[in-house]
Amino acid sequence: MKLSVGIKVANSLSLTPQLQQAIRLLQLSSLELEQEIQLQLDSNPLLEKIEEQESNIESLEHIEAQEREDKDLTNELNADFLPDDLPVDTDWDDVYTHQPTSLGSMEYEEREDNRQGYLTLQEHMQEQVNLLHFSLVDKLIAHCIIDSLDEKGFLDCVISEITTSVQHLLESMDYDDEVEDDEVLAVLKLIQRLDPIGIGSRNLAECLLLQLESLPTNTLYKNEAIMLLNHYEFLISNELSKLVKQTGMNTDQLKSAIALLKSLKAYPGADFENKNLDYQVPDVVVLKKDDRWLVQLNPDILPKLRVNPFYAGMIRRADQSDDNQYLRNQMLEAKNFIKSVDERHKTLLKVATCIVEHQRSFFEIGAEGMKPLVLREIAEEVELHESTISRVTTNKYMLTPRGLFELKYFFSSHVGTTSGGEASSIAIRAKIKKIISEENVRKPLSDNVIANMLKEDGIDVARRTVAKYRESLHIPSSSERKVLI
Q1: 412 and 424 in contact (C-beta within 8 Å)?
Q2: Is 318 helix (H, G, I), strand (E, B) or coil?
Q3: Of the candidates 388, 410, 432, which is a domain's last residue?
């Protein structure tokens, strides 16, 4: 085989840095985009926000006007005479206006801090333990117990593990005391009666029992509720007929005792969960106006960027110096970044508008009107690749009159109908939830009956499909939903 050198012309795809940046910005959430913009603003002197520049110009004009007014006032006060008709009710604020010496407003304004600090469950329990007259060993046991509490307030380990932990701590402190499980159990009993009652319980039955014991002795149906907890396994499995047989109660007593148990706290640590909730900022807002659904980008997350005109004016065409070349590169990067952000918003708006057109029935009647939709359909309509649609709809949220939804929510698989059409899995879940909500609680519908009811509506699904959708909605089975009292 002879070796030779030749030239070959071929077409190939390559990702330019600008295209890579545009693709990366597409998949960023609104918070990540804000962080990326701030990073670019800090690193590129030729990139700036329009709002900041405009606010500075407005503040400058306001200060200049104030300075002219102050100069006129100074000239009047320096006059050789004062008018005789000066009003006697003139306030000092009318002739003196405080003006900061620097451009802009005051650095800060003194206000009362009304923010509330929330104690964690462990901190709340530590404060109470510190007020008790515990010995050193008992205090170590109490601290180990508190550290072993889970977010619901239950004890997340066995007594022997706490005993071993306390023993290791004592040995590290050169103490020769021996700790037994009975000592740990005694401290645990004291902690369980602190606030909240039932903290440190090993299971739900123990937590409810501790709360019942703390109630006044004359509480109605207290003894009956304690009796029910002795047959906790039948109560959990909703076997009410066995409870009646084992306890000897009548229907009214059983109903009142169960109502008393429901009034108690199932999780003693629920009140100490983190109150700082994460709120999602919508990227797209959908509104109905004149029987039309309008789609627009959230103006609060739209950055208004531009190239700094001052630095751009310093660039000289024929100058090949390092400084001039640096400004050229920074201006090119700023323009490419602004273009990439603009393309991101245009693509997001285009895809969101297309989704709203496909899911118009969802916005009109709710989840039952959801239609089956896949990425390929949107990609073909907006003439983009499926991977681009996937990036655009990831971590992007749409605010609608029916709530806040991720764009991915509007894409779902389909199930065949008896008429030859297709139904969305989200719509089928909504129908199952509606059917179960309207059922007779004494005779709940089985999955087979629900499947037959859906077939009557033209949706051909099997019983196991109904069971799968029901479990995804966290709805128990018909035997667990049955209520006899």
Answers
A1: yes
A2: coil
A3: 410
